[in-house]
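fwd from M.: "can u put these together and see what the complex looks like"

so here's what she sent:
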Amino acid sequence: EDAAEESNVSAELIAQRKRLVDEWNAWRIRCQEEVAEERRARGVRQEPTRRQEEEREEIE
Amino acid sequence: MSQRPILLQGHERSLTQIKFNKEGDLLFSASKDSLVNVWFSHNGERLGTYDGHNGTVWTLDVDSQSRFLVTGSADNEMRLWSVQSGKCLFVWEFPTAVKRVAFSENDEQIVCITEQRMGHQGAIRVFNINREGDGTNQSREPESMFHPVGSKATVCAFPYMPGLILTGHESGKVALFDAKSGEEVASNERAHMDVVTDLQLSVDRSYFITSSKDKTARIHDAKTLTVLKTFSTETPLNSACLTPNTPYVLLGGGQEAMNVTTTSLRQGKFETRFWHKIFEEEVGRVKGHFGPLNTIAVHPAGTAYASGGEDGFVRVHHFDDSYFRAKPYGDIEILN
């Protein structure tokens, strides 16, 4: 019975932690989109991606 | 948690602020001894000293190119330095002490807080930095200046939103100001219950962590100022930082003990505290300093951290593999 209760508690705890992580990650994705949009709007140079760097080298 | 730390000995008084450059190869330190030092972070060797202030250096920041260093001091001056040559490039003079400085993300502006004292209001100024030429041709006048009403500002930074200044205050308030008009556009009056002692941004500047004398550190959304996470300790906190590649935050502070610990001991009992960023649980502590920790900084690659103490020491800890392997909560992906 104790063992059952313990595993129940830990299952609850694991579910709670998963909720917290999912909530945080969802918020981070929204934030990252807003930050990227803000930078595009201002025409600020984005950190060049590897692919862009390779393309630039080819042009040169 | 980490191998033996490197002790940086070269300051004669308390550390006030330390910072890594963007690459993380250099560590800058400001102290009450009126000196600013730069060290190689991998071996603790002192690379140089920026000598010129005549009072406690309260604050510093280095630009993203490791070209310019800015410092603020109790001698009422803000100085711009060449990182490489150690030469002072420009001096701004104010009626009161400079308590906090910070570069903008594009290195083109500096925000600074000057202290409220004897008929002078506390002020926040934003300077445009001329990056052409050798750096000595700077404008004496700020691009903008304003006086936050109510509680005085203690810390400041540029969030990712353009035209806004993020501040932390003596009352515990956190606020956003319009950099031009000085209008307070958002605030959280009860972000903390006591002085905000540190404010450090996430890499993309969309969230930040604050520490406070109210014994807590908190993570806030930079746009809404909503408190997202709270880390409650049993000691006043002086510094808090985010790590880029592990889900932890690092907190430091402590109350000065009445009887001074004997210096014959190898390490003191003042600790850096590691907390899980998402679960708000303490995961570890690293002892070290003989007095309160005044300032903590994390290497931008997350491979090391440094702490500066009231005891005058800087301690650099390089994490070993076990630190990165340890996943006390299992293998979960947490976005930075």
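replying to her w this: The radius of gyration of chain B is 19 Å.
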